[in-house]
What does this fold into?
Amino acid sequence: MARGEIRFRSYKPDRRGLAKLQNSPRLGAATLALAARGAQLANQADPEGNYTASPRTVAAGWRLERRAGAVISQTSPSWIAERDRTLVQIARALRSR
It folds into this structure.
């Protein structure tokens, strides 16, 4: 064992504590803040798209547990976003050749 290394013989996760953390208002606020920043960056890249962020409960983890989360939505269609999706599809097709 290396100096300063700590070994745990029997780790058992605290499921109640994890569930409490996953659904905490602070985690929900943090994910919403990240989504809001993502929406802001998307609006800078595609001003016609009108991207917004909203809180959402999501299923995540290997057990698909319900967790506090957020989502970025495009409220109005934009030709820029459609063009970019098409270019990505073309690039993927050319890469597979």
Observations:
- The chain has three helices and two strands.
- The chain has one domain: 15-95.
- Residues 15-95 form one domain.
